[in-house]
Amino acid sequence: METSKNGVVGVRGRVSHTFTKSLIRHWLPFSAVMMSLVDKKFTSHPKADSGRVLKVTHDGDVTWFTPIITTTKCVQEAYYFPLERQICNLTFGSWLYDATQVKISASFDDDAMEFVFKSDKVWDLTEFDAVAYEKKYACCENAWSLVNYKVTLQRRPFFYLLIICFPCVLLSLLVLAVFWAPHEAGEKISMAIQNLLALLLFHQLAAQLRPPSSSVQLFGN
Fold first, then answer.
1. CA 197 to each of CA 108, 162, 185, 187: distance values in angstroms, whole numbers, following the listed order
2. Which residues contact 106 (CB under 8 A, 6 or more apart)?
3. Which of 41, 72, 103 is the C-terminal boundary of a domain?
4. Which of 49, 51, 90 is nearest to 67 (CA)?
5. How many structural domains are present in the chain?
6. Is the peptide bond before 212 cis (omega within 30 degrees of 0)?
7. Where does the record place the Neurotransmitter-gated ion-channel ligand-binding domain (predicted)?
């Protein structure tokens, strides 16, 4: 779509043709997620010329709108399961241009995050923050411009507390009740064995529901 008012031309839409004048040619930075688990999933790839959505204004400002889906790694902290918080960091930067050539700034909108993030009834988004900084590597003379997005997720523990923790507490109280029973009672031994089998069953259930981790977890130990 192209509009003109008072000699000012505004262009919005998909760029599918080639500009011949150097003054109106556009350039996109070659950037990527630093901890991506999928190869060649860059936010802008030189060969991906189709599908670019640009907003060009009369003062030379060019805004590039590009939705991306990326897969990254996140170290899982499962010690306080099911009451744990997971903190994931997403770092964006350029592979080819240092801070003297490309300057990356951090920006985010709280309202937009609340609209985009859809809870899966397991996690809640409790914090989202963005920080722009420069980092110098041993390979290069100049520093590199990076942006780190910090995402904090809080697990909803009601299911685990109701299905596992609460029955385990009741069974533990029943185990103590065995010692309060008179020793003449014939059901004392059978009650203790039944409680032991029930505790073993819930322990196996808790082991299946807990996230796999090599670190010691508070829940279930």
1. 52, 20, 20, 15
2. 130, 131, 132, 147, 148, 149
3. 72
4. 51
5. 3
6. no
7. 36-157
Residue whose C-alpha is closest to residue 62's, from 28, 93, 91: 28
Instruction: Return the half-sphere exposure (C-beta side, CA atoms, 13 A cut-off) of residue 66.
Output: 21
Q: Give the total residue count for the chain.
A: 221
Examine residue 60 and state whether it is found in any structural domain, yes or no. yes
State the distance between the two ends of the chain, measured CA to CA, in whole angstroms.
63
- CA dist 78 and 187 (Å) reads 40
pLDDT digits over 99-138, tens only? 888 888 877 666 656 666 777 788 888 888 888 888 888 8
Q: Give me the DSSP letters along 50-113.
A: TT-EEEE-TTS-EEEE------B------TTTTS-EEEEEEEEEESS--TTT--------HHHH
- The partner residues of 33 in beta bridges, in order of sequence, read 92
State the amino acid at position 76 in one-letter form. Answer: Q
Query: Both 79 and 40 in a single domain?
Result: no
Partners of residue 4 on adjacent β-strands: 9
Instruction: Specify the DSSP class assigned to residue 122.
Output: S
pTM for this model (two decimals): 0.62
Place of tokens 């930067």: 93
